[in-house]
Write a structure and sequence with these properties.
It is a single chain. By secondary structure, the protein is of the alpha+beta class. It has one domain: Alpha-Beta Plaits (2-Layer Sandwich). Helix content is 29%, strand content 31%. The protein has four helices and five strands; from the N terminus they run E-H-H-H-E-E-H-E-E. Helix 2 packs antiparallel against helix 4. The radius of gyration is 17 Å and the shape is elongated. The model has no long low-confidence stretch (mean pLDDT 94).
Length: 156
């Protein structure tokens, strides 16, 4: 059964009022591949627009908090923690980004983690597009979630 569609086929927000709050966590990741020049400038801190990681981290956190404004039918959640971390992968000329979201609530935060990582990667693209318009954002995915009725999930 589709939970966001009623018996008439109309979109609806899922009713979570009867659910008990639980500790919840979701973690998502993604990558952005780029030229050696762009990669070296990001790592060296010499991108003309400024500190790429600082801007992308703030953008990812802000995006996670605003997910219900962007994704239809998402519940507004009281997030208790959002982290956005980066790992430069030198051989691949890419940046791995991970967004982890925590809360105590009645529904999960998978969409918030996915929105956070997507926006952080888009911010890196925006800050570096003058150097490399062919950057590729890929592999955005849920890596882990815990809490709620469906329990723990971890990507193999």
């Amino acid at each position: 059964m589709l939970t966001h569609i009623n018996e008439k086929g109309e979109a609806l927000m899922v009713d979570i009022s009867a659910k008990e709050p639980t500790e919840r966590m979701a973690s998502a990741s993604g990558r952005i591949y780029m030229s050696r020049e762009a990669f070296d400038e990001i790592i060296g801190g010499t991108v003309p627009k400024g500190d790429v990681f600082a801007a992308a981290r703030i953008a990812g956190i802000m995006a996670a908090k605003k997910t219900p404004e962007l994704i239809p039918l998402c519940h507004t959640l009281m997030l208790t923690k959002v982290t956005v971390d980066f790992a430069p992968l030198t051989e691949e000329k890419c940046i791995l980004c991970r967004c982890t979201v925590k809360l105590n609530g009645k529904t999960g935060a998978e969409m918030e983690a996915l929105t956070g990582v997507s926006t952080a990667l888009l911010t890196i693209y925006d800050m570096c597009k003058a150097m490399d318009k062919s950057m590729t954002i890929t592999d955005i995915r849920l890596d882990e979630k815990s809490g709620g009725k469906s329990g723990h999930y971890e990507r193999k």
